[in-house]
Structures are given as structure tokens and as C-alpha cells.
Design brief:
This protein is of the alpha/beta class. The chain is 50% helix and 11% strand. The chain is built from eleven helices and seven strands. The longest helix is centred in the first third of the chain and has 28 residues, at 14-41. The termini are far apart.
Length: 275
């Protein structure tokens, strides 16, 4: 017997069904259990309290460097975090607000055609160099929505502010689910390429190479704590770690207010502040 769904023929013999159940259900159950564990254990108030506060001295210093020093110096910003933390959204906001040249790590990572194929190391390196060079030549500054250790020599000692979005799993999981489902439904082409997300890349939880949800869970569990050390290795002048979306939004609001205040001052009264 066969089951046909929109032209797709699938065998439903007892042997096939038994094989599918025994090979898939354990992996699916384990994946859901892992998601539940992360959801329960990384949503505590104490966990959130350990992050950077919007009105802390380092957060205020970051605003001073980004707004005031940006008037005379070249600023570089790197935003890091697990999938669904909002790296691209924040990088785009900083680019719009401060005029930075924006480098999309995913756009530099994947070829434009060919289906989820990765660019060569040389091509990726040229892309990173182009963004940094443009930001330096125009003196506009630059911002990346991720870090890459393979090209660290291009921006080590050049980063003004590194931002780690270390939000609870209860924040990043719903965000990623909402984003991925909308991309699947809309068949949205990603990062200027022909790549689109499919149901496999959302629901195939037993394969982290295919499912973005499984990759996020592993990234959160195994790599999240390593990201601060990765950012520190680039020797940024300031490292901010936000563990609350509210704190991040408050910091962004302060940044916007400071930018607006500086723009309202007479040009002759704006000093170039030293680092």
C-alpha cells in the first residue's frame, strides 16, 4: 500500500513504518527533551542578572565611543550570539543609526547560487576585507553580525565595541521558530542568494546539519560560553554582554538619545574625544 500526498508516494508497509518509528522517534524525543531542559534551566532571574546593564559604566562608555569618537575616529563593531538572538537585527540598527558599513556574515558565507554551498576561504576573506576597507576609507566605520576566527587578523585590535547577545533559551527559541516558519511560508530568498529555508531545516530535529533548531540547541549548550573568550581574543576596547532584551533595548534608546543630542549641538562645539 502507498500513501500519496500532493504527488509524493510513500510506502506504508508495516516493516517501513516500524523502521521509521524506531529510527526517528528516539532522536525526536531526545531533541525535544534537550529543548525542554535548556528552556527550564536558562530562564532564571539570576542568569539574566549576570549580564551587562544598560546604565552600567561600560555601557555608557560604549555609547560615548560609538557616538562621540565616531565623529573623528573609525569605529568597528562585532555582534555575537546564538542563532535567533538578534545579531543581524542589532547590526542593521547600528548601521542605520550610526552610518556603519554593514557586513552580513551569512551573505559572506554562502555562494549566491547552488543551494547552501559555502564560499571558499579566499572568497570569504575578500568579502570581510571589502567591508572593513570601505568602512575605513569612507571613515563611516563598520559592523558585522558575527565573528569569524579564520579572519581574525583583519579586525583584531580594530574593534571598538564587541556585543554578546547571551539571551535565555526561552527568548531565542521562540524567535528562531517564528523567523524560520515565516521564511518557509514566504519562500524568502536569504542574504541575496537563492537559498530558502524548507520544512526539513526546521523540523528534522534529529539532524543538526539540517535542522536550525537542533543546531541552535547545540550551539547554546556547547558554544555559548565560549563566545566571550572568542570576542576577547580580538582585543576589543569594550565588551558588552546583554542577557536581557529589555537591557539591550534600554541601551539602544540611550544610544539614540545621545546621537540626537550630538546632532542638535553646533558643529563647532563638538570636540574629538581621545580613546
Amino acid at each position: 500500500m502507498k500513501l500519496c500526498v500532493r504527488g509524493f508516494s510513500m510506502k506504508t508497509s508495516p516493516i517501513y513504518v516500524a523502521f521509521l518509528a524506531t529510527s526517528t522517534v528516539p532522536f525526536l524525543s531526545a531533541s525535544l527533551a534537550l529543548c525542554y531542559y535548556l528552556y527550564r534551566n536558562y530562564t532564571t532571574t539570576e542568569y539574566v542578572k549576570q549580564g551587562t546593564k544598560a546604565r552600567s559604566s561600560e555601557a555608557k562608555e560604549a555609547i560615548r565611543r560609538l557616538v562621540v569618537n565616531h565623529e573623528g575616529d573609525i569605529c568597528g563593531v562585532v555582534v555575537e550570539g546564538v542563532s535567533g538572538s538578534g545579531k543581524s537585527t542589532l547590526a542593521a540598527q547600528l548601521s542605520d543609526l550610526l552610518g556603519f558599513v554593514y557586513g552580513s556574515v551569512d551573505q559572506l558565507q554562502f555562494v549566491k547560487t547552488g543551494g547552501w554551498k559555502v564560499n571558499s576561504s579566499e572568497t570569504k576573506r575578500k568579502g570581510w576585507m571589502q567591508v572593513i576597507k570601505q568602512g575605513e576609507e569612507t571613515r563611516a566605520g563598520w559592523v558585522f553580525d558575527g565573528a569569524n576566527k579564520s579572519v581574525h587578523d583583519l579586525y583584531t585590535d580594530k574593534i571598538t565595541v564587541a556585543i554578546h547577545l547571551d539571551f535565555p533559551y526561552s527568548v531565542v527559541l521562540p524567535r528562531l521558530l517564528r523567523r524560520s516558519l515565516l521564511r518557509v511560508i514566504k519562500r524568502e530568498k536569504l542574504w541575496g542568494t537563492e537559498n530558502v529555508e524548507t520544512w526539513d531545516k526546521v523540523l528534522k530535529l534529529w539532524d543538526k546539519r539540517e535542522s536550525i533548531l537542533s543546531w541552535q540547541a547545540e550551539e547554546f549548550l556547547n558554544y555559548r560560553n565560549k563566545k566571550p573568550d572568542l570576542l576577547k581574543s580580538f582585543n576589543p576596547k569594550i565588551l558588552l554582554t546583554f542577557r536581557s532584551p529589555d537591557d539591550l533595548q534600554m541601551w539602544l534608546d540611550d544610544l539614540k538619545r545621545e546621537k540626537a543630542r550630538r546632532l542638535s549641538l553646533p558643529a563647532v562645539s563638538i570636540p574629538a574625544m581621545s580613546k
